[in-house]
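Researcher: For the annotation table, I need structure tokens for THUM3 protein. Please keep the output clean. Sequence:
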Amino acid sequence: RPAGGGWVWAAVRPPRQPGMAEAAGDAGLGPAAAQEGAELAAVIGATVPTGFEQTAAEEVQEKLGSASRISRDRGKIYFEVPARSLPQVHRLRSVDNLFVVVQEFKDYQFKENKEDALKDLEDLVKKLPWTDPLKVWELNNSLKKKKTKRKKHNLQSPASREKLSDAGEEGGADQNNTNDQEDCAQNPVAVEPTGGQDPENPQGATSRNGVEEEDNEQSDVKVEVQASSESGTKAGDGQTGEGEAKVLRFRVTCNRAGDKHSFTSNEAARDFGGAVQEHFQWKADMTNFDVEVLLNIHNNEVVVGIALTEESLHRRNITHFGPTTLRSTLAYGMLRLCDPQPTDIIVDPMCGTGAIPIEGAAEWPFCYHIAGDNSPQAVKRAANNVCSLLRKNETKDSSTALGVPLDIIQWDICNLPLRTGSVDIVVTDMPFGKRIGSKKKNWDLYPACLMEMGRICTPGTGRAVLLTQDKKCFAKALSRVGHIWRRAQTVWVNVGGLHAAVYLLRRTWERAEERRSFW
């Protein structure tokens, strides 16, 4: 409980979990589509923040009752669900992008000759079981159309435009440097010179060969390609899952990792896309596509899929971006790591735009969340993001105005206005010393932060989950405050191309009133 100054408590109604039939109805699926969904099963692939694959698998088991398989390619999990569960799949908090798996080859043997290897990929198109995945895609489309209409209606309101224009700093640079799985879906490199820019990347910056280093320990090359067939743009009649004649537009996105392939991702996407167009008689379209076919190649593992998300699901809470806005999916993983319990008081002492406390308040409404920052601009952004969340809640259920158990305060991280031992959990994204602060300042800041966090946390049961890229400085600081913090777990993650770590710390029983000289 803060010392001095009042709290604002906003009552929250517990989230309601609809049944399968209700979910299908809420998604806008008709009775026939819902019935068909009840009979279909789908293998879903999901990209997740690297390092939090196990966390995502646990969430899938908990909320969908399905066991997940973690891919050898970091940042992906696979699980099987009935197609009628698609609405619940889209409500998962730990996944970025979703796709339905057409077929997976765990040990695909590529020919050494480039022409032969590419010919095999072309021939593969005709052998793949497309029927059920396309039905799943169509059911998913019904869900997506309803969401899109609601989103367009919200964006047209004057209040939304006013808030968006008040954002201050745009987080585009940070969004473009998020983990590699997001880049694959959002920033493809156009093969055809006539291809339009991606709406999420207005700068239109593209690499000539589309090659960049993948963010993993093996430093394999990963290429992101947006490709269509070179065989022309003459459209034929594509068939939807229910047999209605319609000209479908498509693109192929290829993601390749490995140094033993004789071809580039550009070439694989081009030839595979040509075979897809010839097989379905779809129209190739680089930007306004209906179907996005995914070709994921990781060493000898090949997965062909159809995308179910147009943009990453992490874009759900933040409308006012700062220089280092944290992804909501990563924030969820950090919060889940500390296992919040009802009535816990959770503090983010360096909240920035509020990504962590907002995600916490949305998913753990029976805890109380306190966010703070020393920057008045950051506090203002966080408050605006909370207002956006409240407006979104009102849109979902206009009959009841939902609140959030969250308070935002401007404060000094080294002198928090909180009583000693009053906090159960501290979760925060610490300054990396790159965009905010400096590595030199971190040598003084980190030990002071850890000491103050130790003071406010409950001895014996308190815990902290801290994200930082400045691992050397953090390890030194932690060794200096070992009398109040014990490291329980370390999760290695990728944040905007940077190798960072999430540390789970547990509070010892020792009192932390006294001030110590650290260095």
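Researcher: And a one-line annotation?
Model: The chain has a mean pLDDT of 76.
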